[in-house]
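CORE FACILITY INTAKE
Project code: CF-77B
Contact: R.S. (postdoc)
Sample description: multi-component assembly, two entities in total
Requested service: structural model of the whole complex
Turnaround: standard
Below are the sequence entries exactly as provided by the requester. Do not edit them.
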Amino acid sequence: MSNLPLKIVIVDDEIPARNRLRDLLQDCAEQIPLEVVGEASNGLEALALLQSCPADVALLDIRMPEMDGLELAQHLHKLSAPPAIIFTTAYDAHAIQAFEVHAVDYLLKPIRQTRLLEALTRIDTAPPPQEAALRQLRPRPRTHLSVHERGRICLIPASDVVYLRAELKYVTIRTREKEHLLEESLTRLEEEFGERFVRIHRSCLVAKDCIAGFEKTPEENGETHWVVLLTGVEEKLPVSRRQLHIVRELGRG
Amino acid sequence: MKVCATLPGTSTSILVSQVTSINQNAYPDALPNFCNLGTMLRILVSVNAMGFAAALLKAPTGHGFMQEFMEIAAVIQPVLLISLLLLYALHRPLARLPYATGIAAVLLLELILTTAAYWFGGTKADNIDMGAISRYWIFGLGVSGVLLGYFNLRSRALSPALSEARLQALQARIRPHFLFNSINAVLSLIRANPKRAEQALEDMADLFRVLMADNRQLSPLQREVELCRQYLQLEQLRLGERLKVEWHTDNMPPDALVPPLVLQPLLENAVYHGIEPLAAPGIISINIFKRHDEVHMVLRNPYQPDGDHHGGNKMALNNIRERLALHFDAEGRLESKISDDIYQVHITIPFIVTT
């Protein structure tokens, strides 16, 4: 362990809870050199903070508005130097059981100083939580997708996505405004966001909300095929023969 | 050593007292509340149903059935309506009698009424036909007995819901989430603002005193409202600016009697499902007023469409519904609805005060 002070970020939506952690960390500072480099009140703020101000440790509350701690941890994985993560929670029977199973570090609020100190001294040796484990801890779909862009992590609200298309080793995310490249598999995305999206082609998932209608288009060889018309995007996407049933199920045009 | 020796003892004694409080019958047998609309409806419907059944049995063919029914109804209806009126008028003195005496009084009343019905209905014969009058008596006593038995069984069937409500109050009412977060918030205050910490702990003590109390008797609305204010102060401590509360209690009858903890669990739901998932400030509004001898309590909070944990909310609503049904039968209602991103719970109960 280096002699540099441990840089810590506190993420909790309740001000008293953040103050309490600050007090406790101050007490710990007598034993471990550390400094609190920032505070955030939800996952979105925390991700922005950690990009401008890297830290060694993030203390994450689980239940927060906008983006909860478990989802934030999944996005933090994509940082070039992700902080060690310690979850804090007042009560969450589900999460606690899962933490035990996956050996993820967590602290129960009210937190004891000795427990906090223990967790901080362990971060160098404890393995970081695996992404797959984090996904299991939080079976609901993420609220945002995160992509690397110009050395930064950029969040795209899942509700903004019009379609997802697999291209070689990437998935293209299409929103009304832009395209982004995502390094995840389309199959896994379909598992996670199956409620919001429908597969129209082996390589394409479309947001059900964005389907304006279906249209028959003649092909050069004389046959016709169906395409999806989208709201907000000019493009028309082909429906594969195998997925033609969705034209009947969702067809409005 | 001493601590180790006493600790198990205290924990078992707590357990024992909880167990006995479940097993013992908390409700002594009592006559039904004769001025409750639900009770009257139940009596009206069941007596007519029995008359209907009697006509079906008596009528030789489907053809004569209507006539039979009309004849029976001609005897039953006056007795039934006068009984309801008298029971309504006499419900207070009747309720004061011991259960057995009360039963005897009601049966005697029915006996007199059926005799009177026979007297005025069948004056054709000068001499009293003992056979006919005793059939009237048997019918009258039988019907009253069956109904009184039914009301007794019904209150027994519903009463465990109420005695259990006390335990549930401890286990489910106060979310552990709220308890631990509040303790954490108080801890955060101790160094910087000890005065505020003291006040918060006092609020918590009051809240838990009510939660652990015997909550089977109705209590004044004013007390429930004070409890809710204390609860919301604790939540304010944690959530600060994010929690805005609007009270509309100008037309509230402070001495109206309500089941204890009828509002607080709903406020807890409102905070958990409506305020905590919001990053921006959210408003909880509470509107309590009296209209046409009914007390209305309307709670509104922001609705989060993709919020999770809806099981907890349903459980609290069902528990309150059960308690309203036990206290007020058909006259207590709880309705919930969602409109324009606002979740609303509306409770209506009859206006009752201690006399």
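Facility notes:
- The mean pLDDT of chain A is 88.
- The first strand of chain A starts at residue 6 and ends at 11.
Invoice: internal transfer
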